[in-house]
Write a structure and sequence with these properties.
The protein is of the alpha/beta class and 289 residues long. It contains ten helices and twelve strands. It has helices at residues 2-11, 58-80, 117-136, 155-166, 191-197, 211-222, 232-245, 253-259, 268-274, 285-288, and strands spanning 21-22, 25-26, 43-46, 88-94, 103-106, 139-145, 147-149, 170-172, 181-183, 199-202, 228-230, 263-265. The strands form five sheets. It has a four-stranded parallel beta sheet, with helices on both faces. The chain has a two-stranded antiparallel ribbon with strand order 1-2. A two-stranded parallel ribbon has the order 5-12.
Length: 289
């Protein structure tokens, strides 16, 4: 995410400095206290974070808080050591903070009820940043993002692409559950406005494609046949077997519920206040592949 934004911002004539990963090497480890030697920054975009994994132990749960919460605090403390603080701070958060597995057009004023370590660590980071930026008079923007699409995406979209590519992906039932997505490069276009106004915003592509639409687009881009369809009742049986098999199972009742439930978010606030005009992710699938 950070590297995609950095490239897009350079095209907009921004001078950028990346401080997370470069060519697989850690430049700055935010889980520990560190110092910055660069000149002061006008804008900081904090996209570093731990995601896309399900913790299987207490130690793995703590890693989410160490990276997403303590890492945010360490970054801010390092910024305090510079000659001046940034004018604006943009935090890449997640729609997981709302805690919904199902819903339509969920807006920014919804309660933050996320209960996973990932969601909780992001909630704590949001709250801490709101206080830090208020004290230091830094304009804060929080972007709550759904599934992020870009070249070689991680997470569920990457798993879908790999599954269809290998022929090991099954389409379930009508595949009509819709999910909010966002094209990563689009985010750069609203950075100038964000630095002026701040605020909390959901960002989506406004289309909320269904699983079936994504499956068709990915299959077409790969030159593959459409995935084999499995009736919902068969999927439910497989999910119950997965419940017995444990965490290593590729499917269980909880995963099936998420796959077959619509979950979309309202980005009208960003459209009205930031001029957000997103790209439909479906039109970008060939670039994603």
């Amino acid at each position: 995410m950070g590297s995609i934004l950095s490239r897009a911002l350079r095209l907009l004539q921004y001078d950028t400095v990346e401080m997370g990963m470069r060519n697989g090497q850690i430049i700055v480890d935010i889980t520990k206290s560190f110092s910055l030697t660069q000149s002061p920054f006008d804008v900081v975009i904090h996209a570093a974070g731990k995601a896309h994994t399900v913790p299987r132990s207490e130690a793995e749960k703590k890693q989410f808080f160490q990276v997403n919460f303590e890492g945010t605090k360490n970054l801010c403390k390092a910024l305090e050591g510079l000659a001046s603080l940034p004018k604006a701070f943009i935090f890449i958060s997640t729609v997981a903070v709302y805690g919904f597995d199902k819903g339509d057009n969920i807006a920014e004023n919804s309660p933050l009820a996320g209960s996973t370590p990932y969601a909780k660590s992001k909630i704590l980071a949001e709250e801490w940043l709101a206080n830090w930026c208020r004290i230091h008079k830094v304009t804060l923007s929080i972007l709550r993002l759904p599934l992020i699409a870009g070249p070689k995406p991680p997470g569920n979209l990457g798993a879908m692409i790999n599954g269809i590519k290998s022929g090991k992906y099954l389409s379930i039932g009508k595949a009509d559950a819709q999910k909010s997505m966002v094209w990563a490069e689009d985010i750069a276009s609203i950075i100038p406005k964000l630095t002026e106004v701040g605020g909390i915003y959901n960002l989506t592509d406004g289309v909320h494609p269904s699983f079936g639409e994504l499956e068709d687009a990915i299959s077409s881009a790969l030159g593959k046949k459409k995935p084999l369809k499995v009736p919902s009742w068969v999927a439910k049986c497989l999910a119950m077997v997965g419940d017995l098999a444990g965490a290593k199972s590729p499917i269980n009742t909880n995963k099936l519920y998420k796959i077959t439930s619509t979950l979309t978010f309202d980005d009208s606030k960003a459209r009205q206040q930031l001029g957000w005009q997103p790209t439909p992710v479906l039109s970008k699938i060939p670039e994603v592949i």
